[in-house]
Specification:
The complex is a heterodimer of chains A (about 325) and B (about 675). Chain A has about 325 residues and is of the alpha+beta class. Chain A has helices spanning about 5-15, 20-30, 35-45, 50-80, 100-115, 130-135, 165-175, 215-230, 285-290, 305-310, 320, 325; strands spanning about 120, 125-130, 160, 180-190, 200-210, 235-245, 245-255, 270-280, 295-300. By secondary structure, chain B is an alpha+beta fold. Chain B folds into five domains: about 1-70, 2-Layer Sandwich (Phenylalanyl-tRNA Synthetase, Chain B, domain 1); about 90-280, Phenylalanyl-trna Synthetase, Chain B, domain 3 (Phenylalanyl-tRNA Synthetase, Chain B, domain 3), CATH 3.50.40; about 290-330 and about 340-360, Phenylalanyl-tRNA Synthetase, Chain B, domain 1 (2-Layer Sandwich); about 375-560, BirA Bifunctional Protein, domain 2, CATH 3.30.930; about 575-660, Alpha-Beta Plaits. Chain B has 17 helices and 32 strands. Classes of the chains: A alpha+beta (about 325), B alpha+beta (about 675).
Chain lengths: ~325, ~675
């Protein structure tokens, strides 16, 4: 056997050894009086004179290296052995953990999706006027569409916004199109507080104003959003709908993730769940702002509803009761 | 709105299973909320959007089904009133045609009040309406079938004709439900010589109502201004099948058909006979409104190509008339039942709806735009910082009890129609919500809680602002490596210090707390950049049995205290450490010692408190402090010699405030 393979094999044997005895027998086998390497060293004298110095140097270097390895291996085995027994099963000293609310986590996730599509994130007041919440959104007083938004009024005549659409109007007053914005935030509607209703909820609305925007842009964007939130196998469907601030209007439904479309109590036997209301911005709104030559789309979604669907939560009140048992269950990897 | 399958079959000839019909309706935006199978029939509960008053009837739904399946309605919606000129006639006066653009009144005699035939009562029942008597039932039956609300007065209780007019202020009416309602000139009423006999389009009056003894009736079919009906219905908190439909706009042509149809049913099932002239204030209403449509714009807006031929056929099937068409342009005449169609986009939606939204392709074109602002970025960042400090984020409903506002309540913003009557102000602080969270979690058996919220608070002076608040409560629980203890002031202080340092506020200091939500002797205010930014400490509260410690900052205020970040050179040389133990008066605040020593030495020094200790043997009013001094120099490793002078200086300073050094 040549020296190189001898070295390689010995190193491997040392590495594999577990006990000190094993290491010792490896030493005897190779470096002992009758050991394989010792034999090679002895046989160097038989080589032609010109090869001797080179071979001798190499063999001695290898011997030294292996002796060191053996010594270190023995020490390392002993060091491990010499530690007193420790109950490694005791619980670790964990740093105290905290985390974000599931609605914050989901809202940020959705915001990020839109930021990648070039949308800016804007915010606005929760106390609003009739004008921004309704009138500027093509919903005059005494219009039955106001029934869609049962409103909390304040003692000064103002109200708590029923959607974040007022932010869109405020933004359009300040900045001219083209623009793409989303407005996340809290909204309020007079409702009971039960498993499926809450007087406050979180919304994200979006607005894209430009020239030549179509329903195809709207549907493409919403379908993409659904895939990013619910996974690429989600099935989306679009249906005609009505909102005073859009024309044409649409709704996006996704296949019920609980029954996979078969119909269950969550989807009220429909097999699908309404997720987003949307449409092409009503020309009355853009004309009133002086942007008649533009068009675009708007959409809105309740983060609470989407979270309920995504995380399989059957009671909306859990979001506002803030029990740690509940809050601890959500992904805080983004902290 | 509720309709049943069999009734629909009377109007449109379809041979599809109810479930297929639901899918068809869904596809054109008519959402069937519930489907209930009953013996021999299926009942649909339909969610009609507020723009489509015309869909609130059997005819309305049938029309859409016919349009989608390309069929004609089985019956024609046409009418011709009988020419009669007999004894009785009631004069009708309309005060304003804008308020009431059509009013038809038909007098019928020979009425025999009885039960309705069973086909009527069964259909009413399926649609959720209780059968009363043949007169009321027929008006309801016609309402369900045509969508046009009718009202029957007892003819003999009307004195000297009818006026449709605004009520006078303070005028009163007792409704059929025997409730007296006070009216104003915002309300439209039907009146006779003696005053109001009905709330127009909403509910009849008690006085003129149908009774067991009714022999003759006056049947009303009308078109009232939707916003007026809605205003009164909401003000008086009355919502009826009738007001619901008038609010959503009646069909001015159908007003006539419904009267005609009802008269036929009265004649057939009550023995009634027309006994006088039928008054119609607007027998030939103008009904065909014109809207222009461009095929190119249709394609641009829908994002797909729809052939002109296809658009034309959809519109015709829906009952629109094509007045003219040249090239790209189509002039469309809108039938009277489609009050919702006002502009081109409305027609484009009709085309899109019937071509099917599932045929619209997806387009993804996100070029040419960059995200410019992210206005909530700082909020998200601060939430994450606090979460990293071991806090869980809460989101609370911001309605609180008024006692949380100052005694005068001048800063509070009240809710007119609160969700809960005791929580009728908007929160001016995050603390009440956080206390509720603490209580709830402690009651759930949590031993230790750290919860925070970032959210709006509202005051008259400052409108709404974002606040940051957090609470700590409970016991740091016993475990195998340390003992349990109740949370205390230093837990919240540590959190606040960490938070300030995390957001790079380094020049902060503490002073006496003036925030009324905290107990003065166990709380501090945080000052930075010369201004108070918030407070922390033991919360004044009666919500939880346990002590709850908390903090609250105004977010903008807090972030404004941030300094530009400047890099200071790091030192590779280890610091030289010296511990000094002193005995000093118990009442000497550590802060006093620290600020005295800070920046006083020649070498750079960090000062840390590593032990506090009190015991009998050092004196009742004394305490022992151990201070660790860390001397460092970015250029070199310091030697004992180089800090000798600083140690001397520090010792001297400590002695000057009465401290004695311990060995």
């Amino acid at each position: 056997m040549d020296l190189e393979s001898l070295g390689r094999e010995t190193r491997l044997e040392i590495q594999k050894a577990i006990t000190v005895d094993e290491v010792e027998s490896i030493r005897i086998k190779h470096l002992g009086k009758k050991g394989s390497l010792t034999k090679v060293l002895h046989s160097i004298g038989n080589l032609p004179a010109e090869e001797r110095p080179e071979a001798g140097k190499f063999a001695n270097k290898l011997k030294k290296e292996l002796m060191t390895l053996i010594r270190e291996k023995k020490e390392s085995i002993k060091r491990k052995k010499s530690l007193p027994w420790l109950d490694l099963s005791l619980p670790g000293r964990k740093p105290r953990m905290g985390g974000l609310h599931p609605l914050s986590i989901l809202s940020e996730e959705i915001e990020e999706i839109f930021i990648q599509m070039g949308f800016s994130v804007v915010t606005g007041p929760e106390i609003e006027t009739e004008y921004y919440n309704f009138t500027a959104l093509n919903t005059p007083k005494d219009h039955p569409a106001r029934d869609m938004h049962d409103t909390f009024y304040l003692n000064d005549g103002r109200l708590l916004r029923t959607h974040t659409s007022p932010v869109q109007i405020r933004t359009l007053e300040k900045y001219s199109p083209p623009l793409r914005i989303i407005s996340p935030g809290r909204c309020y509607r007079v409702d009971t507080f039960d498993p499926i209703h809450s007087p406050t909820f979180m919304q994200i609305e979006g607005l894209w104003i430009d020239k030549n925007i179509s329903m195809a842009d709207l549907f493409g964007t919403l379908a993409l959003l659904a895939k990013k939130i619910f996974g690429k196998n989600v099935k989306t469907e679009f249906f005609p709908s009505y909102f005073p601030f859009t024309e044409p209007s649409a709704e996006m439904w996704i296949q019920c993730p609980f029954c996979k479309g078969k119909g269950c109590s969550v989807c009220k036997k429909k097999g699908k769940i309404e997720t987003i209301g949307a449409g092409m911005v009503h020309p009355n709104i853009l004309n009133a702002l002086g942007y008649g030559e533009f068009n675009g789309f708007a959409f809105g979604m309740g983060i609470d509803r989407i979270a309920m669907t995504k995380y399989d939560i059957d009671d909306i009140r859990l979001f506002f009761q803030n029990e740690l048992q509940f809050l601890r269950q959500f992904d805080d990897s983004k902290l | 709105m509720i309709v049943n399958y069999n009734w629909i079959l009377e109007w449109v000839d379809i041979k599809m299973e109810p479930q297929k019909l639901v899918e068809l309706l869904d596809s054109i935006g008519i959402q069937v909320e519930e489907v209930e199978k009953v013996p021999g029939d299926t009942i649909f509960k339909i969610d009609v959007t507020p723009n489509r008053g015309d869909l609130l009837s059997v005819i309305g739904i049938s029309r859409e089904i016919a349009a989608k399946t390309g069929k004609q309605l089985k019956k024609r919606i046409e009418y011709k009133f009988p020419e009669v000129n007999l004894e009785k006639k009631i004069n009708v006066t309309i005060q304003s045609e804008e308020d009431c653009s059509r009013y038809i009144l038909s007098p019928l005699s020979n009425i025999k009040i009885a039960n309705s035939p069973s086909f009527i009562t069964k259909r009413l029942e399926k649609c959720g309406i209780r059968s009363l008597n043949n007169i009321i039932d027929i008006t309801n039956y016609v309402l369900l079938e045509t969508g046009q609300p009718l009202h029957a007065f007892d003819f003999d209780k009307i004195e000297e004709g009818i006026t449709v007019r605004r009520a006078k202020n303070e005028e009163k009416i007792v409704t059929l439900e025997e409730e007296e309602k006070k009216l104003s000139k915002e309300d439209l009423i039907i009146s006779d010589k003696n005053g109001p006999i009905a709330l127009a389009g909403i509910m009849g009056g008690l006085k003129s109502g149908i009774s067991e003894d009714t022999k003759r009736i006056a049947l009303e079919s009308a078109f009232f201004k939707p916003s007026l009906i809605r205003g009164t219905a909401r003000k008086l908190k009355i919502s009826t099948e009738s007001s619901y439909r008038f609010e959503r706009t009646a069909d001015i042509y159908l007003v006539g058909y419904a009267a005609y149809y009802a008269i036929q049913l009265f004649e057939k099932y009550t023995g009634g006979k027309i006994m006088g002239k039928i008054v119609d204030t607007n027998p030939n209403p103008i009904i065909w409104k014109k809207v222009q449509l461009s095929c190119g714009k249709t394609n641009d807006l829908l994002g797909m190509n729809v052939e002109k031929k296809k658009s034309l056929s959809i519109l015709k099937n829906l009952g629109f008339q094509i007045s003219s068409e040249t090239g790209d342009k189509i002039e469309v005449s809108v039938p009277s039942h489609r009050n919702d169609i006002k502009i081109e986009e409305d027609l484009i939606e009709e085309i899109g709806r019937f071509v099917g939204y599932d045929n619209i392709p997806f387009r993804f074109n996100y070029s040419n735009s960059r995200t410019i602002w992210i206005e909530n970025k700082e909020i998200i960042e601060i939430k994450k910082i606090i979460a990293r400090l071991g806090f869980w984020e809460a989101i609370n409903i911001p309605f609180i009890e008024p006692h949380w506002a100052s005694p005068e309540k001048t800063e509070a913003i009240f809710i007119e129609n609160p969700m809960w009557s005791d929580k009728n102000i908007l929160r001016n602080t995050l603390i009440p919500g956080l206390l509720e969270n603490a209580k709830r979690n402690l009651n759930r058996g949590e031993e230790f809680i750290q919860i925070f919220e970032v959210g709006r608070v509202f005051t008259k002076a400052n409108e709404e602002e974002e606040n940051v608040g957090g609470v700590i409560a409970g016991n740091i629980s016993k475990n195998w490596y340390e003992n349990d203890r109740e949370v205390d002031f230093y837990d919240i202080k540590g959190v606040v210090e960490a938070l300030l340092e995390e957001i790079k506020i380094l020049d902060y200091s503490f002073e006496n707390c003036t925030n009324p939500h905290f107990i003065k002797d166990r709380a501090l205010s945080v000052k930075a950049g010369g201004k108070v930014r918030g407070a922390f400490g033991l919360i004044v509260q009666e919500v939880c049995k346990d002590n709850v410690y908390g903090f609250e900052f105004n977010l903008k205020n807090l972030l404004n205290a941030r300094k530009e970040e400047h890099f200071t050179k790091t030192s590779v040389f280890p610091p030289l450490k010296r511990d000094i133990s002193i005995i000093i008066k118990k009442s000497t605040p550590f802060e006093e010692i620290k600020s005295m020593l800070d920046h006083s030495t020649k070498q750079k020094t960090r000062i840390r408190l590593i032990d506090v200790y009190s015991a009998e043997k050092i004196g009742k009013d004394k305490k022992s402090l151990t201070i660790r001094l860390e001397f460092y120099n970015p250029e070199k490793t310091l030697t004992d010699d180089e800090i000798k002078d600083d140690i001397k200086l520090i010792t001297k300073k400590l002695e000057s405030i009465g401290a004695t050094l311990r060995e």
